[in-house]
Specification:
Layout: E1 9-13, H1 16-27, E2 30-35, E3 38-42, E4 48-53, E5 74-78, H2 81-91, E6 94-97, E7 107-111, E8 117-122
């Protein structure tokens, strides 16, 4: 028997509304303001990502560093990798690792505007 039920992933960031809007542009859905320091993105399919104001936020170093190493990342499945890459870059994502070895490796890594790593993954 499960102890708990999954609810959401919360990302610390310096500007929660702006980061919620970034992910809304990537995933669709509705942004809801809880208060000045907390915004939720209710994405299609019932998933929720939350964004919490953290004034001293430091983005993790990808893929690893002596300090501030990656603590988590988000994966998003896409039908057209090149098109999705162009779109997230236009929204303000930063490329971290785009070498998918000519499609052999089914993902590319980016950072959102607050520096959190996320992957675009080929739909299988």
């Amino acid at each position: 028997m499960a102890i708990a039920t999954y609810s959401l992933v919360a990302l610390d960031c310096p500007e929660p509304e702006a980061l919620a809007r970034f992910y809304q542009a990537v995933l669709g859905g509705e942004v809801r303001k809880y208060n000045e320091i907390w915004y939720d993105l209710h994405a299609p399919g019932g998933h929720r990502i939350s964004f919490q104001h953290a004034p001293d936020h430091r983005p993790p170093k990808w893929p690893q560093g002596a300090s501030d190493s990656q603590q988590l990342h988000l994966d998003f499945t896409v039908a057209d990798m090149d098109r999705a890459q162009d779109e997230v870059l236009a929204l303000g994502a930063t490329p971290l690792d785009l070498d998918d070895r000519g499609g052999e490796r089914g993902w590319r890594v980016f950072a959102d505007p607050a520096g959190h790593p996320f992957c675009l993954c080929v739909q299988e």
